[in-house]
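Database export, one record per block. Field names are fixed; values are copied verbatim from the stored entry.
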Amino acid sequence: MAFLTGAGLLALNFKGVRKATPYVLLGIILWICVLKSGVHATLAGVAIDFAMPLQAGPDGKSLAKSAEHGLHGWVAWLVMPLFAFANAGVPLEGLSIELLMQPLSLAIMLGLFIGKQIGVFGFAYAAIKLKMADPPLGASTMQLYGVSLLAGIGFTMSLFIGALAYVDPEHQTLVRIGVISGSILSGVLGAMVLAFAGRSSTGKISPEGIGDEGASR
């Protein structure tokens, strides 16, 4: 069945079909078949992507590129975070504020949320003031701070280091809770700061006076 579905996707490509609906319907069938076969279902997504026409049609649009651009927001803001969270291995049963307040998880959370923004923003600010680095072109001090906050989002590497440092499951759970909570705080506050800075800032950082938000561009 998976072979026939894949052949159907290729046939759509060869016939120059540029409507998304036939690819989606056959893609769902292919995904179910691959999942039931025991093979990782992401291979179905790869096959569907290969089958979609890349060349632009009479309307000047590429179906593959249109699908990529249309799905980018959903993948970046929903699919990937859910995938990462589901694979982090954090048991939700019994999750409480007491676990977050444990010294290990609290230290990791504060390290990501407080330590990263102090380190990144502090060194960037000092380097610009001391004229050791060029300021970000057209960016305000608030925007630089917002980016520094986003630096506190740590997941794959933070969990990897935590797994190397602690081998017992109890400590690894505390590591994961600290990483997730610190990343969420950094991401949410960073997004809020950048959104506010984007609306209010009209200036840019200059080596002479970082934070010259009133300067004209």
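Remark 1: Residues 2-86 form one domain.
Remark 2: Confidence is low (pLDDT under 50) at residues 202-209, 213-217.
End of record.
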